[in-house]
Amino acid sequence: MRRSSEDTKTAILAAARERFASDGYQRATIRAIASDAGIDPAMVMRYFGNKEKLFAAAADFDLKLPDLMAIPREALGKTLISHFLDRWENDEGMMILLRTGVTNEAVAERMREIFARQLGPLAARLCDDPSQAPARTGLVSTQVLGMALCRYVLRLPPVAALSRDEIVDWLGPTLQRYLVG
Amino acid sequence: MRRSSEDTKTAILAAARERFASDGYQRATIRAIASDAGIDPAMVMRYFGNKEKLFAAAADFDLKLPDLMAIPREALGKTLISHFLDRWENDEGMMILLRTGVTNEAVAERMREIFARQLGPLAARLCDDPSQAPARTGLVSTQVLGMALCRYVLRLPPVAALSRDEIVDWLGPTLQRYLVG
DNA sequence: GTCTATAATTCGATAGAC
DNA sequence: GTCTATCGAATTATAGAC
Asked: Which domains are seen in chain A, by residue range?
């Protein structure tokens, strides 16, 4: 069965995202990715040049934060954590960044950019003391990423067992306090 | 210069801990560790058998929680975060576990054990509803590990810029609420 | 567009001389 | 106790046939 150029590229990219998400950068081999995609390893090189470029293509990610101005100030915390859970469960891009960023400085830098630039606008909602804005958004990052780490990566049993509603009820007030408390 | 068996072993272990802490398991090579220790790679094999055993020797870690019964109930949150910051900054064992556990199931399992068994006794302090104990200690894990991840591993600028006192003041009440709120 | 063959490198591990 | 030499496996990457 001969596929089109685009089909092959898409299949490779999908397999690459899965492998990078579950194995990290080092352990995700081009051979395994090609095998998953049902093609020859040489095809991966043909379409993406080398492993680094394949990773770059597979690891794009956007927090896709909702319009913060449209959210009632008192609902910021719960809305944020709810949104993050959605993004984590429906896009493996964040899993890729976390699993690779902990041992790859370039990826870590990318995460710094994402969280600084996309979470930064949140600071605009904190009218009282603008100088506290970076610290507050930073604290939000720690709780959100910590939940993702424990629930989806390390799978700590008590955290994995929490229902979505429980998480929203527990972390919502925490984020709310970090942001406007 | 001929060293004693113990000296060599200690030097290898120190170099191994640094490498595993900064590079994770895959990228930390026996060759690099031996080079750091100023000896031949063959010596590493001689003293530790193989890479896995070397890692096991380098990755032992204990949260060393203080006696929780001696802490006033209302000071649990601040005491806990303060203790965690101390442990993290004075023992690279936790950094090793975090940097390797995200892509190594065996290490992840070890982290699950550590946080379950060593943080479990905290549940004994929660007299009201024992059924909530696991969830509460799990939530503590998310905030503590999230802080470590953002501050020491990813080095998000706003989080790395926080002073120790600021962290205690912000996270203390969060942990307090997760535990007894 | 797909695959075979293979080069070049890296790494873990072993054997054995000194 | 230390090192040289080397094996064998795995992996990225290239060249080229079909």
From this structure: 5-58 (1.10.10.60), 68-180 (1.10.357)
For chain A, the 3-state helix, strand and coil shares in percent, each to the nearest 5, are 80, 0, 20
**Residues in CB range of B135: below 8 A, 6 or more apart:** A158, A161, A162, A166, A170
Judged by a CB distance cut-off of 8 A, whether residue A170 touches chain B is yes
Q: Is A112 close to B155, i.e. CB distance below 8 A?
A: yes
For chain B, say whether A77 makes contact (Cβ under 8 Å).
no
Q: What is the pLDDT of residues A98-157, one digit of tens each?
A: 999 999 999 999 999 999 999 998 877 777 888 999 999 999 999 999 999 999 999 999
The encoded tokens of residue B18 equal: 């640094």
pLDDT tens digits for range B50-107: 999 999 999 999 999 998 889 999 999 999 999 999 999 999 999 999 999 999 999 9
Whether this prediction's pTM lies above 0.85 is answered by yes
Q: Give the helix/strand (H/E) hosting B115.
A: helix B105-119
Tell me whether residues A159 and B149 touch, CB distance under 8 A: no
Q: Is the CB of A45 under 7 A from strand C?
A: no
Q: Does residue B141 belong to the interface with chain A, where contact is any CB pair within 8 Å?
A: yes
Measure CA to C1' and name the residue nearest C15: B42
